Amino acid sequence: MSTSDATKLLVTDLAAAVQQVPSRYVRPISDRPNFSDVRPSDGYSFSVIDLHGLHGPSRSDVVHQIGHACERDGFFLVKNHGVSEEMINGMMSLAREFFRLPETERLKSYSDDPTKKTRLSTSFNVKTEKVANWRDFLRLHCYPLHLYVNGWPSNPPSFRKQVAEYCSSMRQLTLNLLEAISESLGLPKDSIANSIGSHGQHMALNYYPPCPQPELTYGLPSHTDPNLITLLLQDQVAGLQVHRDGAWVALNPIPNTFIINIGDQMQVLSNNRYKSVLHRAVVNSATERISIPTFYCPSPEAIIRPAKELIDDENRAVYRRFSYSEYYQTFWSGELDTRRCLDLFRVE
């Protein structure tokens, strides 16, 4: 494996050696971040929902807030979510420690095969994309835990234990949210959980190194998430932007919150009532950024379709039936930002 700067596999190692962005990372002029057009989130706020009331007499109010945010924005933040500050800080420290391991140690987990259950890779899909993204990521499947945990990195030494505990906490939080979202649609609270087969859960540790020319590239270009729902933990470095009312809006970090966004499968199940919204990650020249998304998914064999209770003469099914494996393969076969995969599954 060559160690010359021109052939570094990971952007983390390349970034330390270059003073300008290599050509393979430079976006066309029409597809660059254009930071001057981005609206600050402080003047364009997203809902911050307190989940403390989800298990008490104010549950219906919290459910209503969640439904309103899913319908209006497809994005919201949650606090008092039950995941401890100690666990959150521990995950951030662990991710930082992993990406600071020597290159040879990190590359033990490297693969450019999107079907691998545990893999370190870079950009989005190095096999299909024409322009690379300024990001490295470690992707881990994590439900059921016992099937995957022994394939995870063993360095740092606490990695498997810490990540397993975090995954379990995130699964419980997700199930609580799925119940509330079901209720907000007027469905039984177990409706969504019962419609996605035996469930799937995976996560990523995303690392965005400092970039010498952040105006030329993306950490991740505009996309929607192909899964059911995403729970994002991020450090205190801004980078996430959400497309809202025709403009890009910065969704800046708030300590000890998770950002929740609706994925494509939830848009299908809700028959287009809840929207899977375009979002992107930008980079900066001053500092690294870390984000840790948890992706909750149907199992591959699950048949996805709009909930029957949401279909009538006035509200016809917007999407056809499909298996999640069909959807996921379609998503990964293309480039991230060329089209919305969901549009390929609409009823003719």
UniProtKB/TrEMBL annotation:
Domain Fe2OG dioxygenase intervals: 199-298
Keyword Iron: yes
Coiled-coil spans in chain: none
InterPro entries documented for this protein: DIOX_N, IPNS-like_FE2OG_OXY, IPNS-like_sf, Oxoglu/Fe-dep_dioxygenase_dom, Plant_2OG-oxidoreductases
Pfam families associated with the record: 2OG-FeII_Oxy, DIOX_N
Keyword entries, A-Z: Iron, Metal-binding, Oxidoreductase, Vitamin C
Keyword Metal-binding: yes
Taxonomic superkingdom: Eukaryota
Gene3D superfamilies referenced in this protein's UniProt entry, alphabetically: B-lactam Antibiotic, Isopenicillin N Synthase, Chain (2.60.120.330)
PROSITE patterns to which the protein is assigned, alphabetical: FE2OG_OXY
Family, as annotated: Belongs to the iron/ascorbate-dependent oxidoreductase family.
The protein's name in its UniProt record: Fe2OG dioxygenase domain-containing protein
Species, as recorded: Citrullus colocynthis (colocynth)
